[in-house]
TrEMBL record:
Pfam families: Band_7. This is Slipin family protein. It comes from Eiseniibacteriota bacterium. Gene3D superfamilies: Band 7 domain (3.30.479.30). Belongs to the band 7/mec-2 family. Residues 150-309 form the Band domain. GO terms for cellular component: plasma membrane; side of membrane.
């Protein structure tokens, strides 16, 4: 008994015909009548206008192209890369996939414009045409790419990137987005901030030269000028500059007495800067400034120091008061000497005194005129 099956294949479809489970041919768009006497008829319809991606169905097509190359060559395009190549699959001019070394893909012909661009794995930099796809995959957290095969970094303004291949520095990267393949080499990108940065060295308890324990806080600012030297000559340049300021602070305070430190903190700042600046400059770091923020005394020392300050201020006040008293006495002596030799001046001084007295009296009864008042209030000696 003959088995007959009618199959309609649309323009954006292709069909795979199986008779009795065995591949026969690829069905192109149109109407097909399939006849068979004894074998079962099966047609698998494939959509060819969908976006390109590797799925389980890919392995079916890959098997057919390998086993039946002559029957499938007209309809299926095979994309391959050698062991020393990376492949970029473009469909209608848009990047859709990346093929690693020794990889293989299968796509339908005559539907989408499929183009494969290959790159030697020795040139590990991802080209600009592929970077938008890499960026999209980064946002989608593509583990195949970023855990195994790609090193990706975004370097902002005021930063630079240190590119290393197999542990060796290759170049310094300026701001931008970069991606490097890791198929052949171990590739890392270390982002380094070259803006002015601050380091705080806080809570340092240090003995002065006269054995007084101080707690001091210091702040410094620095900038990485040579990222290669700063990253390759020291393990951690941030900890390094912290330690250098800490050691310089301890060494400087130990050579000064408490009185010298409190008298002028700028001397301490200069000593710390002189010790640290040249030291860190050899590692590509510029120390811009350093200064003592706080000097904290022990509790009992605060009390003693306050007493000393109070005593000094009291002594200064007594000295000023005595100077004023001496000046006033000297002025009175000079006035008395002048009145002794000038009766008229004496009389004017008496009238001035009389005026002050009368200001405090409500009513005055005068007998004998002004002379009588003067004789009674200011009798002559």
């Amino acid at each position: 008994m003959w088995l007959v099956k009618r199959v309609q294949i649309d323009e954006v479809q292709r069909g795979i015909l199986y008779l009795g489970g065995q591949f026969q041919r690829v069905l192109e768009p149109g109407t097909h009548w399939i006849w068979s006497l004894t074998k079962s008829i099966q047609v698998v319809v494939w959509w060819t206008n969908v976006e390109y991606e590797v799925t389980e169905e890919f392995h079916v097509l890959d098997f057919l192209t390998r086993k039946y190359p002559e029957q499938t060559e007209k309809h299926l395009q095979v994309l391959t890369t050698t062991s020393d190549q990376i492949g970029y699959v473009f469909m209608d001019g848009v990047i859709k996939d990346v093929m690693g070394p020794g990889d293989r893909r299968v796509v339908w012909r005559d539907v989408l414009d499929v183009r494969l661009e290959v790159q030697s794995i020795e040139d590990s930099l991802v080209p600009d045409s592929v970077m938008p796809w890499i960026w999209e995959q980064a946002k989608a957290n593509n583990k195949w790419l970023f855990e195994k095969n790609v090193t990706f970094a975004e370097i902002g303004d005021g930063q630079c990137g240190l590119l290393k291949k197999n542990g060796e520095v290759q170049r310094v990267l300026s701001p931008g987005r970069y991606a490097y393949w890791r198929f052949l080499d171990s590739v890392t990108i270390k982002v380094i901030d070259q803006r002015l940065r601050q380091v705080d060295v806080a809570g340092q308890e240090i003995l002065t030269q006269d054995k007084v324990t101080l707690r001091i806080n210091v702040t410094g600012t620095y900038q990485v000028k040579d990222p290669v030297a700063a990253s390759t000559q020291v393990v951690d340049y941030e900890k390094f500059i912290y330690s250098e300021i800490q050691f310089a602070l301890r060494g400087s305070v130990g050579t000064k007495t408490l009185e010298e430190i409190l008298a002028d903190k700028s001397v301490l700042n200069s000593m710390i800067r002189d010790r640290v600046h040249d030291r860190v400059a050899g590692y590509g770091i510029e120390l811009s400034s350093v200064g003592v923020k706080d000097i904290i005394l022990p509790g009992e020392m605060k009390i003693l120091l306050n007493r000393v300050v109070e005593a000094e201020k009291a002594a200064e006040a007594n000295l000023v008061r005595r100077r004023e008293e001496t000046a006033a006495t000297r002025s009175l002596a000079n006035t008395a000497k002048m009145m002794e030799n000038n009766p008229m001046l004496m009389r004017l001084k008496e009238l001035e005194a009389l005026e002050k007295v009368t200001e405090r009296i409500d009513n005055i009864t005068v007998f004998g005129g002004l002379d009588g008042v003067m004789k009674q209030l200011l009798p002559k000696s």
